[in-house]
């Protein structure tokens, strides 16, 4: 710790030296050095104080952020604010928590919801379920997808707070930027999980147990990107759990139909999330984040074609065993066309192009769903 006495001693020493070595130090130079000394003392105190208060939230954020230029940091802040959309209308204190749930980026919720809608509607077709009951289950799963996707994002950001600050695209996320502390994130996560529990309680008991069994995968997914180049396997396993849940939610336990539909969603997620991972590959290499984008590299497109083939094969198998009608196969054909077009056109070295094609999977999921839905509506109204 710098002391005022130290300043006085330094001043005295300089003056004595100046008197014995004439011409080497002028009075003005002595004054300048002492003032500079005091300035350094003042800055050191400020830095120490700020560091202590800052470390209460994100200990290594300041050091990590220093690798970015002021211009890059400002650009990241502007991009975040420009992407808030409707969140700008909410109270400022709410916004970081809404960002934590990625409310301004609903694509994840919609992708999580797609396999749920496939399975619910396919089960409804198999049992000729009343339209009102099917609509109720679709609404329950919509709320569940919204809440659980938000909880998954909170968990991910808590795990990755000291990795997100090393990637330009994620440096402004609420926890790593210090706008939400880890303690606050834990409280918020608890609230999200309580809402998720309430949603699960709307389902039959066997469906509740099956749904709760996915929480282990949800909670540990962020860990896998540190130890394996295939974290997408874990993400795909939990992200498509709804392809299983929709059947027992509608009173159907038919594993020969359920498993191929689940695998179809699994292969689909492996495909689109690897495209997503290609956005950050140059940063991921530097900070040690692993992904299939890095594992597959230039072979990615070849593997994508194989994944799409496997996805469509499993999807058709599930529909055939469920006894689906002609609209299902038309939807499958349209969805397959979109998947292969995506693989052909995506530029894996252009982050903005990767984001565009990743986002297009929302519409692809809807195409598959509409095929099942039209078959279901035709059956209950016209057959």
Automatic annotation (TrEMBL):
It is a multi-pass membrane protein. The lineage of its organism: Eukaryota, Fungi, Dikarya, Ascomycota, Saccharomycotina. GO terms for biological process: isoprenoid biosynthetic process; ubiquinone biosynthetic process. Its EC number is 2.5.1.39. Pathway: Cofactor biosynthesis; ubiquinone biosynthesis. It is an enzyme of class 2 (transferase). It is found in: Mitochondrion inner membrane. HAMAP family: UbiA. Its cofactor is Mg(2+). Keywords: Isoprene biosynthesis, Membrane, Mitochondrion, Mitochondrion inner membrane, Transferase, Transmembrane, Transmembrane helix, Ubiquinone biosynthesis. This is 4-hydroxybenzoate polyprenyltransferase, mitochondrial.
